[in-house]
Amino acid sequence: AGIEPSRLIRTSLASWSAGETVEDTFDEAVQSWRTTDAFDDRTRLAAEYAELYATDHHSIDDVFWKRMLTEYDQREVVELSMCIGSWLSFGRLNRILGLDTACVLPSHVV
């Protein structure tokens, strides 16, 4: 018997399979994650976790975990943690190897 994918993974796969794309304003929403109307409280908590994970992981305390575990089950916390860790690692790898300057993304201008 295999491991059943969590709700987080199923939702992501369903969105990808349906050909959904990121909204044009998503980058702005991410930058203003604390105040944007584009995110619900659960998403805002994930953004807070990502920021703390990346910038001040020592401040992730029992109070934070209590909030986190009211919105996410343990499997989702592990998946979210692995995603955050992977993206941070890939970003650093790209910077160290100079790949962030070697690949130029197309402009967002249509």
List the helices and strands and how they pair.
Elements (H helix, E strand, L loop, with lengths): L6 H11 L8 H6 L9 H15 L6 H10 L2 H23 L2 H4 L8
Shape: globular
Mean pLDDT score, rounded?
Answer: 82
Helix content: 55-70%
Distance between the termini: 47 Å
Q: Whole-number radius of gyration?
A: 16 Å
N-to-C series of helices and strands: HHHHHH
Strand count = 0
SS class: mainly alpha
Q: Enumerate the spans where pLDDT stays under 50 for 5 or more consecutive residues.
A: none
DSSP helical segment count:
6
> Largest sheet, described in full?
none
Percent of residues in beta strands: under 5%
Question: What's the short version?
Answer:
With 110 residues, this protein is mainly alpha-helical.
List keywords for this structure.
mainly alpha, 110 residues, 63% helix
How does this structure look, described?
There is one protein chain. This protein is mostly helical and 110 residues long. The protein contains six helices and no strands. α3 (41-55) crosses α5 (74-96). It is globular. The mean pLDDT is 82.
